[in-house]
């Protein structure tokens, strides 16, 4: 076959594979197409080649050899030291997103070899009995090590109807056993996060397998006369019914005890001198999730501010709902903190943030991040320049209008323009201007399926990166669960 015919054949095959990739109904179908495309583009060969400026490959190979040596030698003490040194040396370079920008199916094989050996070493130390070290003592050692290392969190942005896309993102992660136990949400992201964290594993499986059971009738516009008299555009009672139907009325503590997942919901104060709050089982255990979600959805002008509700356990009527901080009103968490990075890190010891971003006002500014081609850098520069000008203009305006009645609105706009909307790993809703007409409308069954499909397809290309960069944290979790089981069995035998 001539060179020209071979190129024509490859072009046709690539076009068909890209169509199949876009139409994939499962991760397995997507991965099969991605593998064939990587093979066609020469990316599989790139993965096999060890030499790269992005990694210190000889040192990684040496650490793989040492971990293998001491594991087979049966020397857990030395293996522990080598593991600590290896992770400290290489975690930074292994987190480089450029490692995952070439091939669709993953990065250099040496990365997988290193992480596999780390996992084997951790499991060996966990499972191998050590003289003078009880199971309970080993459990405490692993818990301290996990606390030092940290764990991942998933953050779901706001996004109105676009936020249904988070359902597809979380379902894709769940089905690959990659859904973090710590999940935060703002606005629509709070509804999805609460639906997940208020269900145990069996209930969550049912939800993901049967998305048609989701209550979709959340939005109702007031008539013009009602908007003028009420001061907001949409029916909050309808939204509250939607929230309660999908997530129930549990408190943060009750949901955590039921699911084992830590739900975090961002709410912003209506008073300008108050700071945003992150509500969870640690900071507000008795607050009801439905009232927190309702507050996080209270976009000024769309819904009124909300008084949080909490469980009253002090008057003998367990479970009675009473106002929580009754003098305070709360609004959409996206206004001052769509993604509460620092607060999450402090409260839950987070070392890796996975962000699912679907905010309509953010997408135009971040949609060029992964563009390729001759003009991609210019589009990215133009977007960054516009964003910088908007932020600067709002900063100047808020200082000029410091005593005006519009000051709070300018402060909110400035906060929204200057906060960070990305994570260590960002899964992004694709910028599709034609969908903006649906952003404040109840989804049809077809729309629901479409948003879920978009969410899954946005997640699958990030799966290799997420799997690699959360492997150590997931192994810590698995080891600790096994040690807890063994420690409990030992206590029962000695009782």
Give the key terms.
alpha/beta; 9% strand; 22 helices; 495 residues; 56% helix; two-stranded antiparallel ribbon; 9 strands; 7-stranded mixed β-sheet
The DSSP helix count reads 22
Structural class: alpha/beta
- Could you tell me the radius of gyration in angstroms? 25 Å
Strand-residue proportion? 5-15%
Head-to-tail CA distance between termini: 78 Å
Shape category: globular
Task: Give me the oligomer status.
Answer: single chain
Keywords: Hydrolase, Lipid degradation, Lipid metabolism, Membrane, Transmembrane, Transmembrane helix
Pfam family, one: DUF3336
Protein name: DUF3336 domain-containing protein
Organism: Marinobacter lacisalsi
Task: Walk me through this protein's architecture.
- With 495 residues, the chain is an alpha/beta fold.
- 56% of the residues lie in helices and 9% in strands.
- It is built from 22 helices and nine strands.
- The chain has helices at 3-23, 27-41, 43-48, 57-73, 76-94, 109-127, 135-149, 165-175, 188-197, 201-209, 224-230, 236-247, 252-259, 289-296, 334-337, 341-348, 363-366, 376-400, 407-418, 445-459, 463-469, 471-494, and strands at 151-156, 182-185, 262-269, 277-279, 309-312, 320-323, 330-332, 350-357, 425-428.
- Strands 1, 2, 3, 4, 7, 8 and 9 form a seven-stranded mixed beta sheet that branches. A two-stranded antiparallel sheet has the order 5-6.
- Helix 7 (135-149) packs antiparallel against helix 22.
- The longest helix has 25 residues, at 376-400.
- It is globular, with a radius of gyration of 25 Å.
- The N and C termini lie far apart (78 Å).
């Amino acid at each position: 076959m001539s060179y020209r015919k071979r190129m024509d054949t490859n072009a046709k095959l690539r076009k068909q594979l890209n169509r199949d990739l876009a139409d994939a109904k499962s991760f397995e179908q997507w991965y099969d197409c991605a593998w064939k495309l990587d093979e066609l583009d020469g990316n599989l060969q790139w993965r096999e080649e060890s030499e790269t400026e992005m990694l210190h490959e000889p040192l990684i190979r040496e650490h793989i050899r040492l971990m293998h040596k001491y594991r087979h030698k049966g020397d857990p003490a030395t293996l522990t030291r080598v593991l600590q040194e290896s992770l400290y040396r290489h975690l930074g370079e292994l987190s480089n997103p450029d490692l995952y920008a070439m091939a669709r199916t993953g990065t250099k094989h040496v990365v997988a070899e290193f992480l596999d050996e780390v996992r084997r070493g951790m499991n060996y130390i966990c499972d191998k009995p050590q003289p003078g070290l009880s199971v309970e003592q080993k459990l405490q050692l692993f818990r301290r090590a996990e606390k030092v290392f940290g764990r991942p969190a998933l953050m779901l942005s706001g996004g109105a109807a676009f936020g249904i896309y988070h359902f597809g993102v979380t379902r894709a992660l769940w089905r690959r056993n990659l859904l973090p136990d710590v999940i935060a949400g703002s606005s629509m992201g709070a509804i999805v996060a609460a639906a997940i964290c208020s269900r145990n594993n069996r209930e969550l499986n049912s939800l993901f397998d049967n998305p048609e059971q989701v209550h979709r009738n959340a939005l109702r516009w007031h008539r013009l006369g009602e908007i003028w008299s009420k001061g907001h555009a949409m029916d909050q009672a309808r939204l509250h019914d939607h929230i309660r139907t999908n997530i129930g009325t549990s408190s943060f503590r009750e949901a955590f005890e039921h699911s084992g997942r830590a739900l975090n919901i961002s709410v912003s104060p209506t008073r300008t001198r108050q700071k945003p709050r992150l509500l969870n089982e640690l900071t507000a255990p008795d607050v009801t999730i439905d009232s927190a979600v309702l507050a996080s959805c209270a976009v000024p002008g769309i819904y009124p501010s909300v008084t949080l509700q909490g469980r009253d356990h002090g008057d003998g009527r367990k479970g009675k709902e009473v106002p929580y901080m009754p003098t305070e009103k709360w609004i959409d968490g996206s206004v001052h903190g769509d993604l509460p990075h620092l607060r999450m890190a402090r409260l839950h010891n987070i070392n890796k943030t996975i962000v699912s971003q679907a905010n309509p006002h953010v997408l135009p500014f971040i949609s060029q991040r992964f563009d390729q081609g001759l003009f991609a850098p210019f589009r990215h520069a133009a977007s960054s320049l516009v964003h910088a000008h908007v932020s600067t203009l709002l900063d100047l305006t808020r200082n000029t209008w410091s005593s005006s009645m519009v000051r709070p609105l300018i402060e909110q706009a400035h906060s929204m323009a200057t906060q960070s909307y990305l994570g260590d790993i960002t899964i992004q809703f694709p910028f599709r201007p034609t969908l903006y007409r649906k952003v404040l409308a109840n989804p049809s069954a077809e729309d629901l399926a479409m948003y879920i499909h978009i969410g899954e397809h946005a997640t699958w290309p990030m799966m290799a990166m997420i799997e690699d960069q959360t492997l150590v944290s997931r192994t810590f979790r698995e080891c600790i669960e096994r040690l807890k089981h063994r420690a409990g069995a030992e206590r029962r035998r000695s009782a």
